[in-house]
């Protein structure tokens, strides 16, 4: 039994053809040293037909993958206006450049981002504030068929998947975008490769409000990472001192999915990490002094997740009331877990927590039949595939079909969708802050890079207006090197618009 078999894969929403509708990319397993499928396997790119259906365009697009697939990261690294795909794999990853004509080209060798080894999540973000998207790639342990471990459980010693404890940690990668289609591996000089990882999830956000994008990374059976960006190309790993490296009992947990958002509107980014059963998930509240406090218990998240194992996780405003809620995809990694714990199962239900403005409420039971289903969920991506302003969800299952969830809840309130395009700032506007005001109703949201588990999300920002029918003003603070602040008025509602840095609204 080989560990990559049980960790599943990721998925993504992206508008690969720039028609204003979210398409879907699904990652699949594939040939490698321990797996030779009898029938050829491939990843899948589905074009949105704009009528609730999708068409498989994988072969025409040329994005089938070429190894054992793990995750996907979407970003326009060459600023040509078309999103590119980085697919993490074992034993090598692949970068697909979007040609803008419905096809992609494998440019991995030229770009220098093959990442030999077992890569998991990846994030596009601008770490050095030069306006170009750089690439961070998680690595999960040293692994090969030759070095695979054999593990067993029970007195009969039935074969089972080994715990990550049995494997040797490995360094993550950071690649600097040179602006000419190539990247330079700066993992060592940046400090990223110094701590050895067993990394699954990653999110890029400005944790300490200093204008530099940081990284929060989950590790499985070893401490999480909080890479604080000190500028000049260097990061310090500060998770233990910040209070996000270990549990409140000082134990390293089995971190899988992560996300970052300012859920309580205090101006500072908070963090979320999912773990395995009997560990609980953590909602880390930013203390604004370099420290975090685990608010999972008072929020009811710790108790609800005690017997669950979480993978994908994302903050989003599912009901468009202006408050950031949390959705979670769960499922145990071990097929034989019930032989060890009778109250823990391999297939598990998803969770949805509604942010009431004064705390979180578990609304899973009242949010539709899918939250009652037992799933082997892994990757989770968010995106509005039908353009109705209610952000939908896509769930990848391990050894099972993907699940596309249409969100009906957001239609009860008003909204505005924003496609942000940076000019001096990075083109995807990763790191931007959007603030809006309607009467006495004022909210803000930060645009992060990545988040969840092995997955990527609709790049548009949907702002919830609750019952308000008019936006007094909307302000965008573009990330460095721009730092331009633009305030817009006379805005429409209940539709999508495009805002280009320095040029205002460009279309609807």
Strand content: 35-45%
Mean pLDDT: 96
- Please count the helical segments: 5
Estimate percent helicity. Answer: under 10%
* Terminal residue distance: 51 Å
Q: How many beta strands in the DSSP annotation?
A: 38
Q: What shape does the CA trace take?
A: globular
| Radius of gyration from CA coordinates | 21 Å
Q: Can you summarize the main beta sheet? A: 5 strands, antiparallel
Residue stretches low in confidence (pLDDT < 50, at least 5 long) are none
**Strands ordered across the widest β-sheet:** 18-17-16-15-33
Verbal overview:
This protein has 508 residues and is mainly beta. The model has no long low-confidence stretch (mean pLDDT 96). The N and C termini lie far apart (51 Å). It is built from 5 helices and 38 strands. A hairpin with a 5-residue loop joins strand 13 and strand 14.
Features:
508 residues; mainly beta; five-stranded antiparallel β-sheet; four-stranded antiparallel β-sheet; 38 strands
């Amino acid at each position: 039994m080989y560990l990559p078999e049980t960790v599943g894969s990721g998925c993504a929403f992206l508008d690969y053809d720039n028609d204003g509708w979210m398409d879907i990319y699904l990652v699949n397993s594939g040939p490698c040293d321990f797996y030779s499928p009898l029938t050829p396997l491939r990843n899948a790119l589905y074009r949105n037909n704009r009528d609730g259906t999708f068409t498989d365009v994988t072969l025409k697009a040329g994005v089938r993958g070429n190894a054992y697939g793990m995750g996907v990261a979407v970003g326009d690294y060459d600023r040509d206006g078309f999103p590119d795909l980085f697919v993490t794999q074992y034993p090598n990853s692949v970068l697909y450049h979007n040609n803008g004509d419905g096809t992609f080209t494998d440019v991995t060798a030229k770009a220098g981002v093959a990442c030999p080894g077992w890569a998991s999540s990846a994030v596009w973000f601008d770490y050095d504030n030069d306006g170009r998207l750089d690439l961070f790639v998680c690595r999960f342990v040293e692994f090969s068929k030759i070095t695979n471990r054999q593990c067993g459980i029970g007195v009969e010693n039935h074969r089972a998947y080994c715990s990550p404890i049995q494997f040797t940690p490995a360094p993550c990668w950071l690649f600097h975008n040179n602006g000419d289609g190539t990247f330079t591996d700066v993992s060592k000089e940046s400090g990223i490769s110094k701590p050895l990882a067993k990394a699954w999830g990653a999110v890029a956000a400005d944790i300490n409000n200093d204008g530099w994008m940081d990284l929060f990374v989950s590790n499985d059976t070893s401490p999480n990472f909080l890479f604080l960006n000190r500028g000049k190309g260097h990061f310090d790993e500060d998770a233990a001192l910040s209070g996000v490296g270990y549990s409140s009992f000082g134990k390293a947990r089995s971190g899988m999915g992560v996300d970052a958002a300012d859920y309580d509107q205090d101006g500072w980014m908070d963090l979320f990490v999912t773990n395995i059963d009997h560990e609980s998930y953590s909602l880390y509240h930013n203390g604004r002094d370099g420290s975090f406090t685990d608010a999972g218990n008072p929020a009811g998240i710790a108790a609800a997740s005690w017997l669950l194992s979480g993978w994908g996780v994302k903050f989003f405003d599912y009901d468009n009331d202006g408050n950031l809620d949390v959705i979670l995809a769960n499922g145990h990694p071990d097929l034989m877990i019930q032989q060890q714990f009778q109250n823990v199962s391999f297939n598990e239900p998803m969770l949805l927590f509604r942010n009431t403005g004064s705390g979180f409420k578990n609304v899973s039971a009242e949010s539709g039949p899918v939250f009652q289903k037992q799933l082997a969920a892994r990757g989770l991506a968010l995106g509005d595939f039908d353009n109705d302003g209610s952000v939908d969800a896509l769930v990848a299952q391990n050894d099972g079909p993907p699940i596309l969830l249409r969100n009906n809840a957001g239609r009860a309130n008003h909204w505005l969708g924003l496609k942000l395009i940076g000019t001096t700032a990075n083109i995807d506007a990763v790191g931007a802050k959007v603030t809006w005001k309607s009467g006495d109703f004022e909210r803000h949201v930060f645009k992060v890079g990545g988040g969840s588990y092995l997955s990527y999300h609709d790049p548009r920002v949907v702002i919830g207006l609750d019952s308000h029918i008019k936006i007094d003003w909307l302000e965008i603070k573009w990330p460095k090197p721009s730092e331009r602040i633009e305030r817009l008025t006379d805005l429409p509602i209940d539709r999508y618009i495009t805002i280009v840095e320095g040029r205002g609204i460009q279309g609807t």
